[in-house]
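Why does this matter for the project? Reviewers at the last site visit asked to see concrete outputs rather than summary tables. In response, this paragraph embeds two records directly. Each consists of the residue sequence and, immediately after it, the corresponding structure tokens. Nothing has been edited or filtered.
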Amino acid sequence: MFDAQCDLAALVYQPHQDPDAVLRSFAADLNARGFRVVGMVQAGQCADSSLSAVLLHNGETLLLAQDFDPAARGCRLDLARLQNAGMRITDALSHGADLVVINRFGKRERDGKGLSQLIKRALNADIPVVIAVGRDHFADWIKFAGGMSVRLGCEREALEAWWRSISTSNARRDVGSHPTVCEILK
């Protein structure tokens, strides 16, 4: 089930698309317009030592890659560094936010680890969340989200339309409008 005004959105990307650039520019524009965007976007590649993330609330870059190990294969994500980034985002959330951006939904989040707790924390605080989800992970995302998510194409226009929808919905909610399906089932 999908609700166009749901405050949880998956920016679904194909292998040739760059969800980080879309999320980074969107967050920068929202911050410039006076909104507070908290979260991170990926920088660098998962399979090498350049893997890092940019914190959206302060622009700091954090290394997420494991220390160089020539024998390592696949993604070089250092879980301790990811958890440290998650704690820094949690701390930023304690100062308020209008939107939380999570750089990726992957197997760690699918298993309830990684940054999955940030998603839950933000939604429990009624803060909208957008997360990049690879097309090949979308079925896992639907299970994780219980079907209560908006699927967005990996285009800035789709993200802007979703933001307008939930921003307008949140403004109406303040004056007593009816709750959306996502709000009721949350």
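We now turn to the second protein, recorded in exactly the same manner.
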Amino acid sequence: MKVLLAYASKHGSTEEIAEVIARELTASGLSVDLRRASNVETVDCYDAVILGSAIYMGQWQSDATAMIDSHESALKERDVWLFSSGPIGDDPFPKDDPPITADLVERTGAHQHQSFTGRLERGSLGFGERLIATAVRAPQGDFRDWEAIRDWALQVAAALNEKKSLTSPRAE
């Protein structure tokens, strides 16, 4: 089973999450193609697609939404999972998924959307981003839960491997 794992990452945190997910899927026997969402030209050669994006001010990155815009009908014909990276803090804020995720799940026919806590390093932010982070008193640090990320990747891998075993021709 061939899986496209695409991501949109502004400061690298979501890219690192995607890399961990790709490693878990590969270790589970799946063929994974890891790409930036902006570099995806087609999804036609994939059995499944996992798409992730960093969230800023309640929105997915434009590269990720553009990928959905370009491939919406093809995505609905595949197994799709979505993930977001963004809430930060020991008591992550915001607590709820951004409203956009329900629309993205509907547009892609995704099995699930999963939100992961993210990372905020003020030194990597632009001037405007630092102003916003200061204004909302956003905590600095790496709040990613690597165990939760790996567990989710293993759940996706199990679902795909089960589907693969159901569709594989049986030896007579």
